Amino acid sequence: RERRMAAKSSAAAKSAESAPQELTITRILDAPRDLVFRVWTRPEHLVRWWGPTGFTLPQCKMDLRPGGAFHYIMRSGEEGCEISGEKPGTDHRLRGVFREIKPPERLVFTWAWEDENGKLGHETLVTVTMTEQGSKTKLTLHQAVFESVTARDAHNTGWTSSIERLAAYVESL
After folding, report:
1. Is residue 50 exposed (0-12), middle (13-18) or buried (19+ Cβ within 10 Å)?
2. Mind listing the pLDDT tens digit for each residue in 97-107?
3. What's this model's pTM, rounded to 2 decimal places?
4. Contact between 55 and 72 (Cβ < 8 Å)
C-alpha cells in the first residue's frame, strides 16, 4: 500500500513539474449533476455564486452555444480583492467563447481578462467536467495554459473560493 501511495505521489509531482502553467481543481458537490450544470449555464444562477468570496457579478451576458460569447464583470466587495490587492469596488472584466457544451457533463470555453478599453489579455482554455457520483457531482475544472505560475496561482485562489460559493449555493437549492 505504501509503495502504491508513493508511486501516486511521485506521478502527481511529475505531472505538476511537466505542466506548471496548468490548473486542475476537483470537488465533490452535494447536488445532482443536472442542477450543477444548470447553475453554471444560467445567468440568474451565476450571479448568486460566481467569483471569489465578497465579489458580485453585476454584469453576466452569455450566448450559450458553441461559438457563443460571454462577458462578465466581477466587482470586488468591501474587503477589496485579496488576490490582486485592489481596492473595494474594483471591476474585473472577462470575456470568452464557448467551444463545447455537452449537457449535463461538460463545458469548454476560452477565458481572457479585459481591460477598461476592451483590450483582451492572455487567453486560456477552461474545461469543466461534471461526473455523477450517486446523488452527488464530481466537478473537475481544468484551465491552461497560463502565462506564468503566478497567474495560475492567482486563478487557483479565485476558482477555489468561487467553487466554495458554488457548493454552498447548490446545497441550498
Report:
1. buried
2. 999 999 999 99
3. 0.86
4. no
